[in-house]
Amino acid sequence: MSKRALVLIDIQNDYFPGGRWPLSGIESAAGNAARVLEAARRSGDLVVHVRHEFPSEEAPFFTPGSDGAKIHSKVSQQKNEPVVLKHHVNSFRETDLKAILDQHGIEELVICGAMSHMCVDAGVRAASDLGYRSIVVHDACATRDQEFGGTVVPAADVHAAFMAALQFGYAKVVSTEEWLAGSSAG
C-alpha cells in the first residue's frame, strides 16, 4: 500500500474565469493538477479532495451549496476518493483530513491547489507540524494579486514568495514535469 497521498486543495469553480474570485493562471494550474491527479491514480496513491465553503451566503465566494463552491471538472473526484469539506483556511482545522490520512498510513503528501498564499500555505505548514513529509507542485497552484499598504503585489510575485518560504522550511517544491518524472520512484 502506498504511503503517499495527493491532496488537491480548493480547486473550485469560483476561482476560474466567470467565477466570483478568479485567480491568475488557475486554468494552467488546474491542468497541471489534473496531470498529477492522473499519475497519482495510476500509482495507486490515495487521492483526497479538499473543498472550501464559507459558512454564510454573504461570503465573497464559495457560498454554501453554490456552483462556485463545487470542485472544478478538471479535477473531479471519483467515487472512491474522499472529499473533505472545510470552513477555515487550514485544511486540517476542524476536518477529518488527518483521520483519513492516518487511516491509510500516509506519510507523504503531494499538494496542489489554491490559493498559494492562503490555503496551500496553511495546509503545507500544518502538514509539516503534524509530521507529514510534503511536496508542493508549484505550477499546479495559483493565487491572485494582493495589496498591502497601497502597494499591489502581482500574483506571480505572491506565488513565488510563498513557494520560496515553503521550500525553505516546510516542503520540497517541484514543477509538474519534475514530479511526473520522479513520481514513480515513490
TrEMBL record:
Keyword Hydrolase recorded: yes
EC number: 3.5.2.19
Keyword Cytoplasm annotated: no
Annotated ranges, domain Isochorismatase-like: 5-176
InterPro entries named among the record's database cross-references: Isochorismatase-like_dom, Isochorismatase-like_hydrls, Isochorismatase-like_sf
Gene Ontology molecular-function annotations: hydrolase activity
Keyword tags: Hydrolase
One matching Pfam family: Isochorismatase
Protein name: Streptothricin hydrolase
Species the sequence originates in: Caulifigura coniformis
Designated gene of the protein: sttH
